Amino acid sequence: MRILSRLTQIALAFSLTLPLAACGPTRAEDAAIAACKSRSSAAIGGPFRLTSHTGAPITEASFKGRKTLVFFGYTFCPDICPVVLFNVGKAMEDIPEDKRPMTLFISVDPERDTPETLTQYIASNGFPKDIVGATGTLDELKEVNAAFKTPGFGRGKESDDAGGYLVSHASWLYLMNEDWTLDTFFNDSASAAEIARCINLLS
Fold first, then answer.
1. Which residue of 107, 112, 130, 190 sits 20 to 30 Å from the alpha carbon of 88, by its own alpha carbon?
2. Got the DSSP string for 57-120?
């Protein structure tokens, strides 16, 4: 009887702790929140002036008031750019519609990426629907790269797969907040699930 009574007490105590454990965040969730928030910075995302895929001028003020994902690339990019933008599009499926950020794709290949070229590119299947393509002069692009503290960009080696030549560029995906300062960032290997999870945690 004593053994049965003791087991009953243990079972009851354990059952009472279950709701408490279920209500609180797990260690993995705590770590994920900490990692997302530890990558914020007020020093990234300064002023810029570029031209959108519609031909209209845009600045950082065009995106204030809503979170925005920013990615530097170019339309002839053979692998990293389409993969990252596809993962962003996939991530949007797991983010509530009213929490989904815009996406700003900044081309660092002004020689080939005209507004018309960007318009066709950002309409690719799987890319985020709410996306803006942008380009500019070399000086304007250097300015926005500097604002994001990227290592810069430049024409690289010749390549048949890249429409004639490659362009070196940063491959970070930046999440800017409503005030146009950095909330967090992802590297180019971040999965759609990781992107969505982090954005949802910061919403």
1. 112
2. EEEGGGGTTS-EEEEEE-TT--SHHHHHHHHHHHHHTTS-GGGPPEEEEEES-TTT--HHHHHH
Distance, in Å, from the CA atom of 148 to the CA atom of 150, rounded to the nearest integer, reads 5
State the pLDDT at residue 161. 65
Q: What is the DSSP letter of 26?
A: P
Q: Architecture of domain 50-153+164-202 in CATH? A: 3-Layer(aba) Sandwich (3.40)
Give exposure, 51-83, as e/b (b: 16+ Cβ within 10 Å). Answer: bbbeeeebebebbeeebbbbbbbbbbbeeebbe
> Where do the structural domains in the chain lie, given as residue ranges?
50-153+164-202
3-state SS class at 23 = helix
Q: What is the pLDDT of residues 95-131, one digit of tens each?
A: 999 999 999 999 999 999 999 999 999 999 999 999 9
